[in-house]
Prior knowledge:
Elements: H1 8-12, E1 35-42, E2 47-54, E3 57-63, E4 74-75, E5 77-84, E6 92-94, E7 102-114, H2 126-132, E8 134-141, E9 145-151, E10 165-168, H3 194-198
Antiparallel strand pairs: 1-2, 1-7, 2-3, 3-5, 4-10, 6-7, 7-8, 8-9, 9-10
The protein binds manganese (II) ion (MN).
Amino acid sequence: MSRGHPLETYRRKRHFDRTTEPRGDAGPSGTTAPCFVVQIHDASTPHFDFRLEVDGVLRSWSVSKGPSTHPEDKRLAMSTEDHPLEYRDFEGVIAEGEYGAGTVIVWDEGTYRPLTHDKRNRPVPFADALAAGHVSFHLDGGKLRGGFALTRFRGGDGERESWPLVKEGRAGSARQRGTPDPARARSVRTGRTLRQVAEGRPAGGSARR
Ligand code: MN
């Protein structure tokens, strides 16, 4: 697959005069370890966006049910276009009529440690491991902690490939188990729900109806 500017597809899909999403002109994240972010995106089909910093961009997957902390759960993750690093800061509303219209919250974020090794137990560069179709990594986030793996299931040349996302090693605590409920989930940054962000309200305030 020939790749031009890593953000070419991302930029082609968006009008930066009509969306507050970043264009992606900043440099590296500055963190010593690469970062990850999981956003909840209340688009026409609500989903989780799972993003890992690799070589200056956020490699991205759309995970319909969100990550599970139980090793027996396979979560379908469809690859999407690379996003700029600044996208990890994006929480807000994408205007109606624009690509991906809907509300976004930062559900979890942190850093990750690549764990993929070759047969001689030497570390494999993360981008190489992705190109080969399998990555293992340890997440150190506010909500997600521990080993996870993404494995390319089919394809390899298209814009969208399926990569089951699986918890590796020990299961998470019972409290974390199962599918996060997007309607109840809160931003790891601001404590707000999707609805509070959509309505421009602060965290906590309850507007009962
Ligand atoms: Mn999305």
